[in-house]
Amino acid sequence: MVVTRRTLLQALAATGIGAIAGTGAYGFLYGRHELELTTATVPVAGLPPALAGLRIGLLTDVHRSRWVSHDDVIQAVATLMNQRPDLIVLGGDYVTLSDRERYVRASAEALEPLTAPNGVFAVLGNHDDDRDMPAALAARGVQVLKDARTRVRIRGEDLDIVGIRYWTRRGADIASIVRGASGTVMLLAHDPRRLAEAAALKIPLVLSGHTHGGQIVLPIVGAVAAQKFPIVSGIGRRDRTTMFVSRGVGTVYVPVRVNCPPEVAVLTLQVG
Fold first, then answer.
1. With CB atoms counted within 10 Å of each terminal CB, which end of the chain scores lower, N or C?
2. Secondary structure of 59-81 in HEC code, one letter for each residue
3. β-pair type (263-271, 55-59)
4. What radius of gyration do the chain's Cα atoms show?
5. CB 233 within 8 Å of CB 270
6. Per-residue pLDDT at 1
7. Is residue 126 pLDDT above 50, yes or no?
8. Quick check: 229 and 212 in contact, CB under 8 A?
9. Residue 10 has what pLDDT?
10. CA-CA distance, 5 to 82, in Å (whole number)?
11. What is the dihedral of CA 199, 200, 203, 207, to 10 degrees?
12. What is the pLDDT of residues 36-45, one digit of tens each?
């Protein structure tokens, strides 16, 4: 029998968490709302010196639903905007599959205040549909990249931003989107398992979400539900490719976070 991430999270919430007095209740009542601002300096191979110091805001895995409220999302948006990043990336999963039709508009409206001098760019996650969610974001000034590439001129240098769908996995398919890029390439991939393909293509920077950092992280055993991912959260590197994976804002399958607070991130690029 295949054990899925959903099954593991539900089992941890029902058994392992319950075995630790009060932990599950804390994760439900408080842990999932204790938003953190993560700041990190990210080394990027071949980065032009002019782009060193560029600050990228990353907000992902909102999962707007009955469990992730408008206030939760607004807090994340306000936290990120207070940092005044140069560019903003949205990493997918703006709603939750089980009731996404109800919250597509609500999620997009909560994200509408996001703005940055060099634009706001988004990709879709596995919980997002391919029509209504991107349309709702685009109507609010977000450029949604669905297996697409765009170029931004910053400080006299080109930054090629490549965004792929969750289901785009073959290296050849990603290569066809990257082909023609002339500047530094930044890949937006909801699933961090695309690190292997990015490294093979010598893409210097990848931004991802999807893992929720494990959502439930237990002492000793760690993030059991996220062990299949090459990077669960934070910075990792393969060859000359650097990846940052955000824990995200919302929750999925069970409305609990334990030892894994929600976050928005501000990443400062450096030559690396």
1. N
2. ECCCCECCCCCHHHHHHHHHHHH
3. antiparallel
4. 18
5. no
6. 45
7. yes
8. no
9. 57
10. 34
11. -40
12. 999 999 999 9
Backbone angles phi, psi at 106, to 5 degrees: -60, -40
What the chain holds in terms of domains, given with CATH numbers, is 5-271 (3.60.21.10)
Query: Which DSSP helix (H) or strand (E) runs through 205?
Result: strand 205-208
Q: Is residue 238 classed exposed, middle or buried when 0-12, 13-18 and 19+ CB atoms within 10 A define those classes?
A: middle
**Distance between CA atoms of 62 and 94, rounded to whole angstroms?**
5
Cβ contacts of 161 within 8 Å, gap of 6 or more = 121, 145, 149, 150, 151, 152, 186, 188
Handedness of CA 231, 96, 164, 183 (dihedral sign): negative
Task: Answer whether residue 30 shows pLDDT above 80.
Answer: no
pLDDT in tens, 204-246: 999 999 999 999 998 888 888 778 999 999 999 999 999 999 9
Say if residue 2's pLDDT is above 80: no
CB contact set of 240 (below 8 Å; sequence gap of 6+) = 45, 46, 199, 202, 204
Residue 21's pLDDT band, with cuts at 50, 70 and 90, is very low
Question: Which residues, in sequence order, are bridge partners of residue 143?
Answer: 121
pTM assigned to the model: 0.92
Distance CA 55, CA 204 (A): 16
How distant is the alpha carbon of residue 35 from its chain centre? Answer: 15
Q: Tell me, what's the pLDDT at 221? A: 85
Helix axes 100-111, 70-81, angle to 10 degrees: 30
Q: Note the pLDDT tens digit of each residue in 112-124.
A: 999 999 999 999 9
What is the pLDDT averaged over residues 89-99?
A: 96
What phi and psi values does residue 98 have, to the nearest 5 degrees?
-65, -30
Contacts of 148 (CB under 8 A, 6+ apart): 162, 163, 177
